Amino acid sequence: MQSELQLQFLGATGTVTGSKYLLQSHSKNILIDCGLFQGFKQLRLRNWKPLPLNPKTIDAVILTHAHIDHTGYLPLLVKNGFKGPVYCSSATRDLCEVLLMDSARLQEQEAAYMNKHGLSKHKPAIPLYTPDDAKRSLQLLHAVNLFEQQPLGDSLGFHLLPAGHIIGATMVYINSGEKSILFSGDLGRQNDLIMNPPAIVKNVDYLIVESTYGNRTHEAEDPADKLSDVINRTIQRNGKVIIPSFAVGRAQTLLYYIHLLKIKGAIPSDLPVYLNSPMAEEATAIFDNHPGEHRLSVEQSAALCKASKMISSVEDSKKLNLRKDPMIILAGSGMGTGGRVIHHFKAFAPDARNTILFSGFQAGGTRGASMVDGAKEIKIHGEYVPIRAEVTSINSLSAHADANEIITWLKHFEQPPKLTFITHGEPIAADTLRLKIKEQLGWEAYVPDYLESINLSDANQ
Description:
The chain is an alpha/beta fold. Helix content is about 30%, strand content about 20%. The protein is built from 14 helices and 22 strands. Strand 17 and strand 18 form a beta hairpin. The longest helix has 27 residues, at about 90-115. The two termini are about 15 Å apart.
């Protein structure tokens, strides 16, 4: 008699945020990823709604990587009663200590700002969770070695495989003894400047694969050429380059490219570069602690750490907005949803001499998506800020595999999974990838709905 496995999609359906997958066996509830919803208000409101099960009944959480759309709900899960182990790679554990505390501080700061200026209809506005909640969640993290089988009980076990997306990013391979399920997490690229490629997988019964770029291919241009062009034309008009940057992965790649461009003489060697993100500063240092998980040598990692001046204090951050000379500022967040970069938007977006350079996927409903789509103004802290600066993007820097790269990775499977679930993509991206998989590989593929629950014993029938 086969044991039944039920898979429920609690997030990352119809969106690239809120990743949560609930796998239920006869006696175990396992949550794979525990992310926050971001972007459109109707998505963010889901963070405030209770899960369809009591967090106290969840036996374990397994994280694919540290990005907030995969981990940021964890402090709230703990706040609401979860007390089980949270498994992840060693680098993910280290990054979570940075990202979850930063997320909690941002939640508190945003609520305080809204209360101070009377901008919330809630009296008072309260944070989703606090730094104390984040600290309690961090105490539950258990680092496990890649490729090592870990028991979960009820005949379930799992191991982690490198995903290549950011440092510490993994796929989660769960085996019940009768069935195997692979959660891809966010897949990296074959030829990334810094990260190693995703591990090859040859067999699995059920596959859950991301589709962030399921309807697109990355630009073939050398990102270094695009980056140098943007920087040089901006400084020629005495402007500043503001780069909203994801603190983990993207900031380090950009800094290393800027370092290489200065060495080559492609941009002025004395051009000031500021990393205005304490979180990105800490994340950059983590690269030194995990040398086997990326392509950089010890010397290259050291050069990366010296490629910019770190801005730690709020006072120094504010001083950047008063500078008149050309410079490059990298600041979080990567989609302009919060963090220090939004204050730089207020200071520099109204000036046509400046450039705002996006370097990654912009989820629908974010300030970044609006600006890339040509918005003439954006709303920050209840006020509208005009966008006169040049707004451009470098898509070839993405840390996500594009549609063709995902198909290439899938071609290594020796036989098709019984069913492939397409998640972590906007609707058109997910469905486009579904069609590609069906037409090019002949596989059965399916795009699940939010909160949909599927019995894996029946999924391929």
